[in-house]
Amino acid sequence: MRDYHNIKIIGFDLGHGETALSWVRADNAETTPQSLLINNRKSQITAIAHHPKKGIVIGEMACQMPDATIFEIAFKSRRFNETAYQKNIKEFVNAIYQHLIDTQQIQSGDNNYFFIGCPSGWWQEEIETYKQLLSKDCLPNATVVKESRAALMHAKESGIFTIEELQKSVLVIDIGSSTTDYTLVKGMSDTPIDFGHDLGASLIEKEILKKTLECQTQYREGREEILRLGEILKDEEILQLEEISQLENIFEQNPIYKNRCELRCRKAKEEYFNYQDSYEETIVNVGIEDIQRKFKFLPLVNGKIINTILSQPLRELDNKSWRDAFRDQLQGVKEKLQHIGIQPSAILLTGSASKMSFVQEICQEVFADLPCKRDGEPELSIARGLARWGRVYIRTAGFLEEINQFLDRELTGIVGNYIPVFLEKLAEELANGLVDDVIKPSVQSWRNRKIITLSSLESEIEQKAKAWLTGSDANNKVTTCLVEWLSKVQNEVREKTDSICRKYNLPLETFSSKTIDLGDHTDKVPTSISLDDLTGLSIFVGHLVALIVGVVLAGLFHILLFTGIIAPIVGIIAYFIGESLVKETDIPGWIRKLVPDQKIDELAFQKKPELQQKIQQTLIQDPTIGVKLGKSISEWLKESVQEQADKARLLIA
């Protein structure tokens, strides 16, 4: 058993708008994650400043540096190739790491393992790039985890959901500063369903900044439409028109000041949604932003302002309002789930923006029958979930190591051992189909004089064979053979994984209760060992079917010619008209009747084994079949077993 005593697990939720960190020890599977403090707070604004004397400053402290030469906020994105993005992220992460050491919250000599969150919509290549960016000269032992998994782990461990509820399906909605991610967690595996890339809560604070200046402009011009500022503020607290124009020029020339004002707007927005009932008429007071010691910027936020912003069309949202864009995205997710036949059992809201009350209202409007749950501190739930996930990840490292060894060393061999059996069965099914559905009906058509010559019969058989092989009947036969074969392969894979599960006291049903079962879906096959989604492997099997059919078609003339499909017929009638003329002659009807249905059945029965042998030889002799089949099946099974092993982390702890 591995010694976990000196291992510290740190969940690092580096968000576009806010950042939070939590930690647990690996040697105790029961402890609740504790927050690591940045500037004595559990969560910090994702901000970084360069100060000529104090150097790099982060979070709230960065916002309080009026003499900063650089001030950046909300810089997490997918722009991995941009030098400025890489610089900001690395400097921010390095500053947090150094702050944790300087404040003795972690020790550089300890075994610190960092688990960093990323949106569930990021591709695997993006995740790997992000990991490399943060690992190089930044964090030791860094692992990137999808935030939906962290949310799921936290929900399970903190009692928001029971394991029984999670075995069903949960729609995780993560509302961040820049995006809203929708992730379906079904049977404890996460499947991205849809992503609202441009729907982030930061749009609201940007509009608060615009509305604040707009309301003051209207006041000075005597045409107030939203607020009567004279009833709320003193006249000297309201900017003059010339001051508003000067301030807008400053924002354009020096984004540092605009960023500061947007942060002040964010604080006002958060304060409003924390205590919404108190601010329907009253202006939220989160202090003023002093711009160049000349302008005093006070964000204007109350119920009227927020409702106006949430209801107005926004260019960034294709002229939809924030409310309507969120509702439309959620409705789109619902329709996609209905299309694939999935009804979520509950909704989990995460992200600090999930505190906005209207979000839960819209969720319950669109999914009227579903409970909508949210952690009491959603701004910390991802960091805590990452720490919990990391602890299980470390404690199950041995389990995953053995799973990976099995996948790398044994799986390809298992698949390879079964390929000859598959090709034999496949050749038999294709021979049966070609004889019963192509050759017999064609010979009967010739006997009934619908086909004139035996030469035409040969051409007819070849053309019909091509059409049959590329049609649904052959497709179904190949698919059925493939699925039956996969079941046999899976049985041996299951035996291997079961032995590993027993070693780690993992419930065997994690792998073995899932079986391949087509049910009534003869034209579809399941996607993985979990076998819930019927779409992905259908494409995968379609690829293999096309591969097999392509090989058979390429050798079809050889198969039919050397099997001698019409040779027995030639032998029957050559006696009457001469062998040299038989294939090109319009043979009289009375001679054709010498080939009755019974004789055609006998000929077909005799020729099936020869046809099967030729098909099987063609498949075996083609060098691509065995290699491509083995590689494709191995990759599919490896992905499936890895997915199941990942889900097992929720059960082993």
From TrEMBL:
Originating species: Brasilonema octagenarum UFV-OR1
CDD domains named among the record's database cross-references: ASKHA_NBD_HSP70 (cd10170)
Protein name in the entry: Uncharacterized protein
Protein family per UniProt: Belongs to the heat shock protein 70 family.
Keyword Nucleotide-binding attached: no
Keywords linked to the UniProt accession: Membrane, Stress response, Transmembrane, Transmembrane helix
InterPro entries: ATPase_NBD, Heat_shock_70_CS
Keyword Membrane (UniProt): yes
Entries under SUPFAM superfamilies matching the protein: Actin-like ATPase domain
Ranges annotated as spanning the membrane: 534-553, 559-578
